[in-house]
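Notes from the 1:1 (GR / supervisor)

We went over the backlog. Supervisor wanted to see one worked example end to end before approving the batch request, so GR pasted a single chain during the call. The sequence is below; no edits were made to it. Supervisor asked that the structure be written out right there so they could see what the output format looks like.
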Amino acid sequence: SQAVALTFTGGGSAAGAPATVAPVAAPVAAPAASAVTVNAGTPLLVRMVDPVSSRDPQGKRFTTTLESDLVVNGTTVARAGSKVYGRVQTAQQAGRYAGQSALDLRLSELAVGPNLIPLVTSGYTQAGDKSMGKTARGAATGAAIGAIADGGEGAGKGAAIGAVASGLKKGQTVTIAPGTLLEFRLQQPLTVKSSL
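Structure output shown during the call:
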């Protein structure tokens, strides 16, 4: 019978073979954040949520909402209904006899997602009637009535009575109620980062 010789080459065991390393998948890049700039002069039409008046303290914060989408070159920066916050820049209440009520409002922050973006806008200013004008008209009317009733001396008395009667009416308070539409304009460009 014939003997069959089997020869094994390589002489190494399986443990000595180089290990095969599996390729590592490249991390998926997150969408790049793109900065959108809203130019100065852009109008912002907002609807009041909180009431404000000339009796409010300077610096009081109030809330409004955007009336329409804020869109720049086809990109929506903020949706209609987004919160826009403002502050009372100045407030002045007319006195009983003289002065004029005035109210100056500015928008200060735009809510975009969880972020509040600072704003610099023009002011919305409203003034009431001058109290002095009312007092002067009241005094003149009182003087005329006094003159008719009691000659020259009555004119002086009538003027004093007219001034007091008119002065009892406090200066007109400027009030902006919830739901009122106000328009402001950006005074400085507004840059908002958004993922496209």
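Supervisor's comment: Residues 131-152, 154-169 have pLDDT under 50 and may be disordered.
Batch request approved.
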